[in-house]
Amino acid sequence: MTLSTACALAPSLDSAVTDVQGIRVGHFTDSRRPTGCTVILSEGGAVAGVDVRGAAPGTRETDLLEPGNLVERVHAVLLSGGSAFGLDAAGGVMRWLEERGVGLQVGPACVPIVPAAILFDLLVGDHRVRPDADAGHAACAAASSSPPAEGSVGAGAGATVGKLFGIERAMKGGIGTASIRVAGVTVGAIIAVNAVGDVIDPSGGAVLAGARTPDGTKPMRTADAMLRGEWPVASAPVTPPGTATTVGLVATDAVLDKAQARKLAQMAHDGLARTIDPVHTLYDGDTIFALATGATGVRADPTMLGVAAALVTAAAVIRGVSRAQGISLEGLVQVPSARDLGWIRN
């Protein structure tokens, strides 16, 4: 399948958030069950913003990113599986940075600033296995400026999509990345796709991965089913609230202040709205961070950067599901990928 967009410019299939100067990415994928975490490092510090739109978020250090608050720069952002337990992995990221003298100097202490967001992946495998501080440390040790692996790795290892009718009719989500260069700067995204809704092709509306019909072979089209009344009643939902969430980050090497970084995160959510239906629901805790490394020294137009952020976010969502591998756990639920079912062929 060729990924398409209504924009004349499109991210190339080998682009990645690591194309942004000053950004490195590392994954930790747990071998015991499908879960893991992903760290985005900016050891020189980056101006950061965040926008939370889902109703069931799990986050750390997001208040600090408000434009009126004191700290200007962060040193890493963590995306993790494991639900709220996965926030422990941020401690390992802090430890790795502290070992290298990276952080905010506060008196005698060097304090790394590491915002984080988690997704819910406890429905697949042993829920007692989840990312911890050692997992976050290992993700940092694996970090590189090379294009990161995509699909069923890191924070995308246990991600699933189309869960409104239960995990038995869901499909595999994953983590994807993309970037684009415009006006002398680069804008990139990395998104872990774990939505209650379906992932759709923004060019034509085809379902690429999502809830399946009871026989498991065709798209249910979650939004359409909801409007027809064919979905679990609120008093007894098949998928309890809070068991989804798409998390991610957009980054640029342009120069931004904190208010502009927050706007970048806000506009990046447009990319989720183009590719996930429904999105920002009561079941999701959708969160996007934004980092501006300023490495180019270019003060690009924030609105133009926001347009680019939405574009690469949409591309990263599609790449996350198109490169995912299905989950097949002995004696447990099987969660096929879009490739397994032939909904995406290349």
Instruction: Give the averaged pLDDT, no decimals.
Output: 92
Quantity of strands, as a count: 18
Helix content bin:
10-25%
Structural class, from secondary structure content? Answer: alpha+beta
Give start-end ranges of low-pLDDT stretches.
Answer: 1-6
- Describe the global form: globular
Largest sheet: 9 strands, mixed
Note the gap between the termini: 5 Å
Work out the helix count.
Answer: 5
Task: Give a short overview.
The protein has 346 residues and is α+β, with helices and mostly antiparallel strands.
Explain how this protein is built:
Strand 12 and strand 13 form a beta hairpin. The strands form five sheets. Strands 1, 2, 3, 4, 7, 10, 11, 14 and 16 form a nine-stranded mixed β-sheet that branches. With 346 residues, the protein is an alpha+beta fold. Helix 1 (89-99) packs across helix 2. The protein has one domain (17-335): 4-Layer Sandwich (L-amino peptidase D-ALA esterase/amidase), CATH 3.60.70. The radius of gyration is 19 Å and the shape is globular. The chain has helices at residues 89-99, 133-141, 222-227, 258-275, 302-322, and strands spanning 24-29, 36-52, 59-60, 73-80, 104-106, 109-111, 116-118, 160-161, 171-172, 174-182, 185-193, 198-200, 207-209, 247-252, 276-277, 287-292, 327-328, 334-335.
Features of this protein?
346 residues; alpha+beta; L-amino peptidase D-ALA esterase/amidase; nine-stranded mixed β-sheet; three-stranded antiparallel β-sheet; 5 helices; 18 strands; 19% helix; globular; disordered N terminus
